[in-house]
Amino acid sequence: MSPKSALKATSEPVLSVVSARPTLLLAWYDRHRRKLPWRAAPGETSDPYRVWLSEIMLQQTTVKAVGPYFEKFLARWPEVTALGNASQDDVLRMWAGLGYYSRARNLYACAVAVTREHGGVFPDTEEGLRALPGIGPYTAAAIAAIAFDRHTMPVDGNIERVVSRLFAVEQELPQAKPLIRQLAATLLANSRAGDSAQALMDLGASICTPKKPACALCPFTDDCTARALGTQETFPRKAPKKSGTLRRGAAFVVTRGDELLVRSRPEKGLLGGMTEVPGSEWRAEQDDAAAKQQAPELKGLSRWQRKLGVVTHVFTHFPLELVVYTAKAGARTRAPKGMRWVPIATLADEALPNVMRKVIAHALSSGRSS
Fold first, then answer.
1. Choosing from 55, 126, 160, 276, which is the catalytic residue?
2. What is the pLDDT of residues 51-80, one digit of tens each?
3. What's the rounded Cα separation, in Å, for the pair 280 and 211?
């Protein structure tokens, strides 16, 4: 069979095959579903709080990375009202290391809204969920389907991959998203919407993987257009990524005995509300001399020592290089306005983003300075 014939045969399947897909998918899921800490066991009712918490954490993050954080949050705040009555600083500290920190601020804002405006009960419709802070179209659909069995299909990266291969969607992402959502909806069973969605997620995570998919184990193995053409790994089609311009800056690590000088970033913007050591602006056109001029001023500070090497970090939209300067302050040196001293021994409890943890580790290492 030629590629064109195969494409036509699999892109226009007979009605019986199309209608069987949701049933095949659920049958596969009932045998192979993943055990996840936020997922209800067969026959149990899903907890909206667990579903919501996991969905926010899983945005742009792996299941493996989220697991420990989910368990920590659940142990500290077992229900949404407990989280809604916490402080944002505590939430940011617990979130530290998981990345994409705007999610933590939105998580807290949403918990406050559900607690204060909805009596601790999540809305059970997509429309109601979308009205909450930090809940967009995908997350609203996921919670509505999984927690409340609403007849809707959320589309995450795993589902995009499964659907784009099953139907051989040639259009590139992100332009293909509306079409993929429309096609994904055809895989919804008349009931068990939440299980249909989770089945596709599991299928993408365990079988229809980005590379070397295990097609022989897939419930759609005889019904997949991309497999018939032998082009599975080329889907989904994606436009080339644009890499951001490299930005540079300096970080200033000041110690006072066993204490470290830190400050909080502005609430809005990149890493909003997180803890950091003082630093320069991060700019594409910035040399070391200009960055060093932005060092904090403290009385009786020792001479700045530049650590050899640089700290590198990659954000979503740009890569970053930081030179690190260290200095020591006297025992009675006061912190400049807007800054504070914190014990180095308790840094694990601070809301430090990963880039700052790298900076501090580099500064406090025994490596040479210049």
1. 55
2. 999 999 999 889 999 999 999 999 999 999
3. 41
